[in-house]
Design brief:
Number of strands: 29
Largest sheet: 5 strands, mixed
Distance between the termini: 67 Å
């Protein structure tokens, strides 16, 4: 049994009590943390379904639940809250109607003939006869009258000599009892929820709360949201590219922070640089997110929900980067971002145990890694298997038939590759598609080439290391050629002098000697 940080014990393998599958599981009786809230799955079953699961005190192997069933249990819990909230709204609206007036259906039974009803000297027998005769001659008259909500019980009274029986169409007392029950079910359990200034009319989940908090923090502070790809930083608002964190922060200040709410993607966790926080509404200097949240709620009366870790926090520097959670140091931002999974990776793959920060990343991982579609569209020319009919057709057109499939958006020309189209745009249409390096004097006509140059020449991103001599390489193919040296392999042979070499580059260098 292992223990994940901030998550609780995990048993692998174990039998899930809910789906009867054997996989990595969690204990039903242990306490786990999810989105800042504590949860015990056995208690959740009791609260949601009224199920008291037996035999939970024995062997831990028999008291487990898998991650898939946990997610379904959480969905059931959210659905229960949604139903309770909706019922409360329904009952509130019905009570408002009944607070005005309740329409009652009144059944009028005359006690005497209409011509003699004002005569008070008739006997009881005469009254009985008149009543019976009237019932046989005339139908009952239904008269709607308005009665105050406090008098909506069944009525029996006399009106102008008539006996009146009230039968209400809408029972306000029953609605009131249901309303009180719904209020009891929806009563907040934590002090933080009791401090909310007003009751929410619709259910709000943790992700929505985190999004609202993030918008307020970014709008009213100097934190810097950004995007990242490989080793470049991109402006959150205009997507401009930067290699210097200082330039990124200075540029972001030129944008209105109120645009953040309309720009943020609701299904992704934002990444934010918190090197400078401070308050935009006053001159207060603040260097901690939690301190800023207390400041913005107490001094400026902004409403924040009791949610922590609304976004991924970074402190970007030009050299080594430090984790804001554990002070670990990393040379590259990509390495630091992967490290953040250890702190915020709440979504776990049941198949391989990989953890992810976002649910969409977990789903993409499962689709690509564990539910791979078998290639079943073979190319009739070369035999290569493609995953779809479209991919097979595109392969035949571009590889074998050499049909240009990439069109120019300024004319009718078509090309085999994007590089050829870019060259066409420069030479024919006069586009200035140049990407200069900000750290040296090199200029490239493709952004991808510039990024490769930056990683290789300036960042020295050599992630492929030889296990025998610790030498590092930028490309995996370079590492494979290097490993041939350790194995003594010489698979690249010169056709002119029969000399052999371990790598293709070595052979190409040798071939130049024959051309001199």
């Amino acid at each position: 049994m292992s223990v994940n940080k901030n998550k609780g014990p995990v048993i692998n393998p174990a039998l899930c009590r809910c789906c009867h599958s054997i996989k990595k599981c969690r204990l039903l009786t242990a306490e786990y943390e999810f989105n800042g809230c504590k949860e015990v799955y056995a208690d959740m079953f009791m609260d949601i379904f009224g199920l008291l699961l037996p035999h939970l005190d024995g062997d831990s192997m028999d008291c487990c639940i898998c991650a898939t069933c946990v997610s379904r249990l959480r969905e059931a819990s959210e659905f229960r809250k949604q139903v309770l909230q909706s019922e409360q709204l329904f009952l509130d609206s019905r009570l408002k109607e009944n607070d005005k007036n309740v329409m009652l259906e009144i059944k009028i039974e005359p006690t005497c003939d209409l011509d003699t009803r004002d005569n008070s000297d008739h006997s009881a027998d005469h009254h009985d006869i008149s009543d019976s005769e009237t019932d046989t001659k005339k139908p009952h008259i239904k008269e709607p009258i308005a009665v105050n909500n406090s008098k909506v019980k069944s009525l029996k009274r006399t009106r102008n000599g008539h006996k009146v029986d009230g039968k209400q169409l809408c029972t306000a007392g029953k609605i009131q009892r249901l309303h009180n029950k719904m209020e009891k079910l929806l009563k907040p359990e934590t002090p933080a929820e009791k401090t909310q200034p007003e009751k929410l009319s619709v259910p709000i989940d943790q992700n929505r709360m985190a999004l609202i908090n993030t918008v307020i923090i970014v709008t009213y502070s100097y934190v810097c949201p950004f995007f990242n790809r490989i080793s470049f930083y991109y402006c959150f608002y205009c997507k401009d590219q930067f290699t210097s964190p200082v330039e990124l922060r200075e540029h972001t200040l030129s944008h209105d922070s109120k645009l953040f709410e309309n720009t943020i993607e609701h299904n992704k966790i934002p990444i934010v640089d918190i090197t400078r926080i401070d308050c935009r509404l006053c001159q207060e200097k603040i260097d901690d997110v939690d301190t800023f949240k207390k400041h913005i709620t107490s001094k400026h009366q902004k409403i924040l929900y009791p949610v922590t870790n609304e976004f991924l926090k970074f402190k970007l520097t030009a050299n080594n980067l430090t984790c804001t959670e554990c002070d670990a140091v990393f040379a590259f931002f990509d390495s630091l971002k992967k490290h953040m999974i250890e702190h915020f990776g709440t979504h776990t793959c049941d198949e391989c145990g990989a953890r992810f920060i976002e649910l969409s990343l977990l789903r993409s991982h499962i689709k690509k890694t564990h539910n791979k579609v078998d290639a079943n569209y073979p190319c009739e020319i070369c035999g290569k298997n493609l995953k779809s009919k479209y991919s097979m057709g595109l392969h035949v057109a571009t590889v074998h038939e050499k049909k240009p499939t990439i069109n120019c958006y300024k004319c009718d020309a078509a090309f085999l590759s994007y590089a050829l189209r870019n060259r066409h745009l420069i030479e024919v249409h006069g586009d200035k598609r140049t990407f200069p390096c900000k750290l040296c004097d090199k200029v490239y006509n493709r952004r991808k080439t510039l990024m490769e140059h930056h990683r290789r020449s300036h960042l020295k991103v050599f992630n492929h290391q030889c296990e025998l001599c610790a030498q590092t390489f930028y490309l995996p193919s370079s590492l494979q050629e290097h490993m041939a040296i350790h194995r003594g392999e010489r698979n690249f042979k010169c056709e002119q002098c029969d000399k052999s070499y371990p790598g293709l580059k070595s052979l190409q260098c040798h071939m130049r000697s024959h051309k001199r």
